[in-house]
Design goal:
By secondary structure, the chain is α/β, with parallel strands linked by helices. The protein contains 10 helices and 16 strands. α2 (114-134) packs across α3 and α2 (114-134) packs across α9 (272-287). The mean pLDDT is 95. It holds the Pfam family ADH_zinc_N.
């Protein structure tokens, strides 16, 4: 019988359980996939802790790659034997085998390994919509990207550099600064000991940046607004430090008629056409060398509890993959 990581209740990493699961035949619109690699993302810890509530009991994980074993009636987008990857859908990628809505699966092209595909689907497609759609970064622009040594950060900063942007990145240590610099960051700010807004103003000659990409949330939000030039866009796409504290939206006008976006990947890939186009753009960036993906941490799937402890303890850099 296949196994999976499941949770019966929310809490710390100790609530993760390695359990036998029954996986039946796919129904209408479904495919059965045998995972070869499973991606890990910070949002998984939100689901486990209850910050982002999900119905319980539940599987966990939203990103993976593998082989299609069977498809349900009327499924035409994939067939048995296809190499596929996905991000999103019902939680449950922390598994050896699962049923999944077939329409969220995309083909993995030759030249992209299963581990790479599992590591980049969520992070790569997130980077794609952030820098190509939420705000279309143009050559010569200077942008600020928080957590530049994280999974999304390393992907996005390389891509931004390839687009001709000047990239300011924030990190928490000198070690992470070196990694981010090697992946496209022109300027690094050590947020644990430097005033981010002050440094951004120094780097930009007092002008500020047109866009800030912020996945940290509560600890950085207000300071990020001070990094923007008038009419700048604050893109808040995560809460690794906790939810942003409610604030008077009049602050946006006071700081220069600023814009605020809270985008999600689900919205940007809601249609099959958008999903396929986004994934193609990501895989093409990898195939052409604009972005190099380094899976820096690999764990067995049954060690998911340790993975979450390392992730929340800031002991990881870049992409993490678990192998079933």
């Amino acid at each position: 019988m296949p196994k999976a990581i499941r949770i019966q209740q929310t809490g710390g990493p100790e609530v993760l359980r390695w359990e036998d699961v029954e996986v039946g035949e796919p129904g209408p619109g479904q495919a059965r996939i045998r995972h070869t690699a499973v991606g890990v993302n910070f949002i998984d810890t939100y689901h486990r802790s209850g910050l982002y509530p999900i119905p319980l009991p539940s599987g966990l994980g939203s990103e993976g790659a593998g082989i299609v074993e069977a498809v349900g009636p009327d499924v035409t987008v994939v067939k048995p034997g296809d190499r596929v990857a996905y991000a999103g859908g019902p939680p449950g990628s922390y598994s050896q085998v699962r049923l999944i809505p077939a329409h969220i699966l995309v083909p993995v092209p030759e030249g992209v390994t299963d581990q790479t595909a599992a590591a980049v689907m969520l992070k790569g497609m997130t980077a794609q919509y952030l820098i190509r759609r939420t705000y279309t970064v143009k050559p010569g622009e200077t942008v600020l990207f928080h957590a530049a040594a994280g999974g999304v950060g390393l992907f996005a900063c390389q891509w931004l550099k390839a687009l001709g942007a000047t990239v300011i990145g924030t990190v928490g240590s000198d070690e992470k600064a070196a990694i981010a610099r090697a992946h496209g960051c022109d300027h690094l700010i050590i947020s644990t000991r430097e005033d981010v807004a002050k440094r951004v103003r120094e780097i930009t000659g007092g002008v500020g940046v047109p866009v800030v990409y912020d996945s940290i949330g509560k600890d950085t939000f207000m300071n990020s607004l001070d990094c923007l030039r008038p009419l700048g866009l604050m893109v808040s796409f995560g809460n690794s430090s906790g939810k942003v504290t409610p604030f008077d939206i009049g602050v946006l006008s006071q700081k220069g008629s600023l814009y605020l976006a809270r985008p999600t990947l689900a919205t940007y890939t809601a249609t099959r056409a958008d999903l396929e186009a986004t994934a193609r753009d990501v895989f093409e960036a990898i195939r052409t060398g604009k972005v190099k993906v380094e899976v820096r941490h690999t764990y067995p799937l049954d060690r998911a509890e340790q993975v979450h402890r390392d992730l929340e303890g800031r002991r990881t850099v870049g992409s993490i993959v678990m192998t079933p």
